What does this fold into?
Amino acid sequence: MASSRRRKLTRSEYKIQADELREQLVQLQLALKRAPFKVMLIIAGPEGAGRGTLLQTLAEWLDPRGVETFSWHPPTTEEREHPHQWRLWRDVPAMGRIGLYAGSWYTETLREEARNKRALRHVAEEAERIRDFETLLVDGGTLIVKVWLHISEDAQGRRLRTLRADPLTAWRVTNEDWHHHRLYRRLEKTAALIRRKTNQPGVRWTTIDAEDERQRDLDVGRLLLARVAAHQRVIAKLPRAAAANPVALRPRGLRRLHALRLDQEMSETGYDALRDKWLGRLSRALRSAFNTGRAVVFVFEGWDAAGKGGAIRRLTSAADPRDYRVIPVAKPTPEEKHAHYLWRFWRDVPRDGRCAVFDRSWYGRVLVERIEGFCREDEWRRAFDEINAFEKELTDHGVIVVKFWLHISHEEQLRRFREREATPHKRHKLNEEDWRNRRQRAAYEIAVGDMLALTDRKNAPWHLVPADDKRFARIEVLCTAAKQIEAALAD
It folds into this structure.
């Protein structure tokens, strides 16, 4: 922490240093426009430490066209009806921009502690969730600069009294501020625990003395400059993405894939009878889930021409169209490409009592991005744990996650490709990328096997569907979906 015994800056000294710093920050923003990362400056500290005035100063120094400002508030109804991280992911700045946070997930945690004293164990658990979220962003290239503004208990009291005594600033002092002042020592103990739990390589806390407001502002601005410069050097040394060497990480997944019986068939008569049975059962299961506030997420992955679209159409016929959305996942847009790969999927996580059907999904990270070299090896290897954590965040909130891999033989895929070529209204479904993927089937099988082995979890299991026979596959999807939702509701 900067020393509180430093001589206070005069107004003229401050102006000279602030003007110089302001020019450096403008140059920083120009460089950031070309940088492949984003910056998050989190300003935390006790009430009266000057988070708001510091934010205002930074906003004056920085070009507003390259800044996004985020405030933190008690969760809205919509936010409460989503997993905890949903609101966090919405407050991530765009590539090449600086996000300023005078209130953040830390603010809300401390406010909750002030409202309802909780055991330190619960505070530590919340801090660990924050740590995991920040780690995910940092591993994805985001620079997070975290500042704790420190003022003593006496200084906090003096500042609150000064603000209250001035008619122009009295409105800024609330009853909650005085309540926090009375709890200063308890909240400082809690804040120290949170900082300790979330202080990690790449996203460490810096404590700044906030009693001298001028020096505080300069210290934070200089810290931002130094951290961005250091991060630019780190990013410049990262290896480029390259196509992966097709070696299985977990051979058991590939064995499971190859052991699947693809010769299972179903007659048209048998299909009609079972379709009505399982559609009815799935419809009842979905209504029960929605009536109890449970969201459902369906994930469909599989080979090109494996029948994902047909299976999805049959599955959604069991639900009220007002209750579900089908999300076809294509190549990322330029905005999505420059964001963390999970960001675009968090936006489509359904609220409580709703359903989302993903036609392809976040598993592209460990499939096409791995095989085509769209990400570095360390990134796709890390993605298995990141995806497991993402799905656990969903299921911990109560979301039911149902995942399907539709599997067809190499020969059946070729037959369907030829059929699409020969059928005018199906030709749009086939393109050169499909043929290229087919030529790389051996490499993709290894990637699929690793996906099955490393992301098959009790809370979000994989269901392998033999799909050479479309009728058999569609009944298998309906039956499996109904049974998993029923089991989740009974748990």
About this structure: The two ends are 50 Å apart (CA to CA). Residues 213-236 form the longest helix (24 residues).
